[in-house]
Amino acid sequence: MHSMAFRADEQARIGREHAIDYLLSNLPVSKREQGQAVIDELIEEYGPVVQYYPSWHPLMTANGDKRELGRYPKTRPDEGAGYKGLDHTIYFRNAFISCPYGGAKTIINSVKKLKGHQDATISAEELDIPLYYEGTTPVVVKCDWHAEQEIDGTVPKRAAVGLLLEQEVPCWRWAQVAETWENMRHYILGSPRGSKSSLFVSQETGNAMKVAYMSLINGGLFGPIYK
Questions:
Q1: Which CA distances in Å does 130 have to 23, 78, 133, 140, 141?
Q2: Which of 155, 182, 217, 227 suits a disulfide with 160, CB 3.0-4.6 Å?
Q3: Other Cβ atoms closer than 10 A to 219
Q4: What stretches of 25-129 show up as alpha helix (H) in DSSP?
Q5: Distance between CA atoms of residues 25 and 43, nearest Å
Q6: DSSP strands (E only) in the chain
Q7: Which residues share a beta bridge with 178?
Q8: What share of the chain has pLDDT > 90, as a percent?
Q9: Is 39 strand, coil or helix?
Q10: Is residue 226 predicted with pLDDT exceeding 70?
Q11: 0.90 exceeded by the pTM?
Q12: Rg of the Cα trace of the chain?
């Protein structure tokens, strides 16, 4: 069975439509144009709408120690990843918008308390327009990478491979079996994704990540390969 080729442009278009529908359809028509402009600005600056993150992404790892991250990988922002007060959330490649009713303080304070990340700056900012429903206080949490990203906005190969290895190698201390690439792909590539690429990493980078990961499991680092 051949999987469909991954079409990044099509997935980005579908994601944008979903974000617009989710964040704007409950608002009065007069408020929608402003909201759509904000969504498009975020896409322009922080990349397309995504379903979830690779577990090594700075937004997922800015609050954890490496042991915990490897043992309990996160792919969506939540309290376990250090974010408090999230509600009605849309994810972008390097940011997310959350629209709580109870004000922005809880989210903004939780982001300030993150331990931080050596490869990116994570910050939070309150928006002065309603999204999702009137009465919410939308907050944008942003991940600004310190290294330049690829021309298409994806994570450079060196950073992606390095972050993957930093997270996976410490797992050798407690792993009893090695998970296959197929079982780990959603953690490693994020979503939407194809077999070796996603909206986070190009085909070339995804290939390099697969080679790096396969060398760990084929080298016996985590024990016998789980079939």
A1: 9, 22, 7, 12, 16
A2: 155
A3: 10
A4: 29-46, 58-61, 66-71, 105-112
A5: 19
A6: 49-50, 89-92, 95-98, 120-126, 139-145
A7: 225
A8: 90
A9: helix
A10: yes
A11: yes
A12: 18
Amino acid at 77: P
Distances (CA, A) of 106 to 33, 62, 83, 98, 138: 28, 17, 9, 11, 12
**DSSP assignment letter at 53:** -
Per-residue pLDDT tens over the stretch 13-66:
999 999 999 999 999 999 999 999 999 999 999 999 999 999 999 999 999 766
Pairwise CA distance, residues 34 & 25, whole Å: 13
Reduced to 3 states, what is the DSSP secondary structure of residue 225?
A: strand
Q: Spell 50-79 as b/e; 16+ CB within 10 A means b.
A: bbbbbbbbbbbbbbbeeeebbeebbbbbee
